[in-house]
Specification:
Blueprint lengths: L8 H52 L3 E5 L14 E5 L15 E5 L7 E4 L6 E3 L12 E6 L8 E5 L5 E3 L1 E2 L5 E2 L10
Antiparallel strand pairs: 1-2, 1-5, 2-3, 4-6, 6-7, 7-8, 9-10
Subcellular location: Cell inner membrane
Protein name: Type II secretion system protein H
Family: Belongs to the GSP H family.
Length: 186
């Protein structure tokens, strides 16, 4: 009598049940992991853009603005859109190539549904030639809040001195500012 190699239907069903159980446990964790990666990528991309703006102000010895531009080249409070860094010689928060203002860098728009804010109503961040923030009251927090995952919100705190700090996780209870306040979007 010949002996055949293979699996019985019961063995296949047991293996399939184990595989489906592992997937059911792992997929929610995978989703959380992917959200964390997306938030970290956006925060560190924005942090690099802020550093680029500050360094450009210092090296070009002129004002440099970071903001979302509308189709007329004006800064608007639409932080979910593409962000631009440009020299702003007349400090009007408007990109004007005719005045020899230079576009220094850009960052793509964030994922649809996520939120990015600078303070509550700020339209732009301007660095003076010294590397400090230009004007009174520009220090604030960039808040990045992923859709349906507010506990994973992160921020970048920008001080009047021009330095920018990425928020840190506080005792595994979500990211906080240095004051201990939670990062939140309005």
């Amino acid at each position: 009598m010949a002996k055949y190699a293979g699996f019985t239907i019961i063995e296949v069903l047991v293996a399939l049940a184990i595989l489906l159980s592992l997937l059911a446990i792992g997929i929610p964790s995978l989703n959380s992991f992917l959200v964390n990666i997306r938030v970290d990528n956006e925060i560190y991309s924005l942090h690099r853009l802020i550093l680029t703006a500050r360094n450009s102000a210092l090296t070009k010895n002129t004002r440099v603005t970071l903001c979302p531009l509308n189709s007329q080249g004006e800064c608007k409070n639409l932080w979910h859109n593409e962000l631009s860094v440009f020299t702003d010689s007349n400090n009007n928060k408007k990109y004007e190539p005719a005045l020899n203002e230079q576009l220094v860098a850009q960052k793509a728009a964030i994922k649809v549904g996520d939120k990015l804010q600078y303070g509550k109503t700020r339209i732009g961040l301007t660095y003076a030639a010294t590397g400090h923030l230009s004007g009174w009251g520009q220090n604030a927090t960039f808040s990045y809040c992923p859709a349906d995952h507010s506990s994973k919100s992160r921020g970048i705190i920008v001080h009047t001195s021009g330095r920018a700090y990425v928020s840190e996780n506080h005792k595994n209870k979500g990211d906080r500012k240095r004051t201990g306040a939670k990062i939140k979007c309005y």
